[in-house]
Amino acid sequence: MIQTENLGKEYDGLKVVDGLNLKVEKGDIYGFLGPNGAGKTTTIMMLLGIIPQTEGKIYLLGEELKPRNIELKRRIGVVAENQYLYREMTAQEYLDFFGEIYEIQNPKKRIEELLEAVGLKDERNKKLGAYSKGMQQKFAFVRALLHDPELLILDEPVANLDPNGIKQIRDLIEEENRIGRTVLVSSHLLSEVEKLCKKVGIINQGKLLVEDNMDNIKRRLTDTIIMRIELNQEANSLESALRQIPYVTTFNITGNKLDIRLKTDRDYRKDLSQTFVDHGFLILSMQTKEMSLEEAFMTITHQNISLLTRREN
Amino acid sequence: MARSGKITRILLKKDLLFALYSLGYYGVLFVSFFASSFILKSFLDGIREEDILVTAFPLNTYLSIIIIIISLYLVLVSAISISREKEQGTLETLSYGPVTPRSFLLAKFFKDFFIGIISLGFTAIYFYLVSSLTNIGFTPGLIKALVMGVFLVSCVVSFGLFISSFTGRVRSSIISLIAILGAFLVIQFTYNSLLGIEKEALSVPLFYIRQTLHYVFQGINWISPFAFISRGLDSVVLENWPLFFTNIVYCIVYSVIFIALSIGIMNRKGVKA
Q1: Which of B65, B119, B209, B239 has the most CB atoms lying inside 10 A of its own CB?
Q2: Are B90 and A85 within 8 A, CB to CB?
Q3: What ipTM goes with this model?
Q4: Distance between CA atoms of A151 and A183, rounded to whole angstroms?
Q5: Do A18 and A136 share a domain, yes or no?
Q6: Do B97 and A73 touch (CB under 8 A)?
Q7: What residues in B contact A98, CB-CB < 8 Å?
Q8: In Å, how far is B122's CA from the nearest CA of chain A?
Q9: A72: closest CA of chain B, how far (Å)
Q10: pLDDT digits (tens, 9 = 90+) for A59-92
């Protein structure tokens, strides 16, 4: 659905996007992540044909994106980071206007359904200038979905929404994905990306560091895992023993519970269990502490960014 | 092509309705009719005193005043029409869909052009009423000037859109417009002042400045839309049909060139402010 080949953008000799090879398959909800200034919005603007690329090619819905290929844009829906609406129009006038632009046959039913889905049905005769930021954000979804696009491109789609609004939009995205729409989401709200996305691409300094499914991304973002262990008795006496173990990087003991950070170069659970048994302890439970994408993303810093680019064993 | 034309029509309908609902437009019409009526009253008082009126174009001067005021309004409105949508980001939103710079710019052109034509329609009604009330003839010369006005409006609007196409913000559009028109005026004033000095009285540097200004002035005559207004209205008074039609052709060529340049600039600069 979206494919870029060596996509690049340069401003005054500075490469903002460099050799980007994205691949979003049909039916994906693809999370596009990266720290501020990573090149996400520039990439999205290039995908939308708003700014031209300096190098590389973009393929959307199987066709190469070219300035004259306007018909392609009829098949894409967009919610951008900022909502630029005609403030002097009412919601109904605005949607009628876009309905005409996209040549939608009988748009009334579709407008009704979408306004209902985002909870703005009763606000349709209000001027858009009187809408709050959250309402504008939700309204942008109505415009983006009005023409039944095959592909949805969303840049920070829930940035201005309250928890209820976020849930409405998440449900809407999931519903639209269920009926076959492919979605590309760029967001800083990583918990949302985690809930929504099947596949994630992470960009930094204009380069795609990794493109993988969520679990693999989490695993690759760190070279350690945390084991949460419960023993049959207080574990303070284990402190010196744990310090001696080379694959244990850090640990925390609270009564009979331990959080132990282990290296991930191999499975150390058996060795660790043996150590506890050798010291007269019984293991009541042992589980890997799941890392949220938010926590994983927090680890994208300059010193550990190489973790993303390393090859998996 | 047909779809692009349809998009232009949809954008035009929206923009034209907004323009016609704007109070500013009617304010400008009122000011232009008021200024024209004020000067016309002095003229009528003069006729009453002299008891004689000898002119084939009794109302054309007052029509010129209205055309110039409307043109100043239109050049300003068109000069900010694209940059305002760039600044507000609404052009970017349109560009996510099937709206191209060409369809957008043509919609803006026709919106301001139709506003100009509607203004000329009101002007025709105004002069018909003046003619009925004062018994001063609604002459064919006035009709010719109104027809010429349609093409002059097209020049003014395309020039304004050209300025708007290379500026990204309303403020920079207004500053650029004032700077360019101001520069034209300063050059014209300086050149006319130097023309008033005898050739022998000019120092060598001043002579070369005058020569240079001569060429610059010739260039401005083909760039400034207000030079086209002056030439176009003169061609009506001169009662020279070939000159009249030549000026219409010049106006059309001027408009086409400036619109094409504006589309080219928009394609190159993109839709962001």
Answers
A1: B119
A2: yes
A3: 0.86
A4: 6
A5: yes
A6: yes
A7: 97
A8: 27
A9: 8
A10: 999 889 887 778 889 999 999 888 899 999 999 9
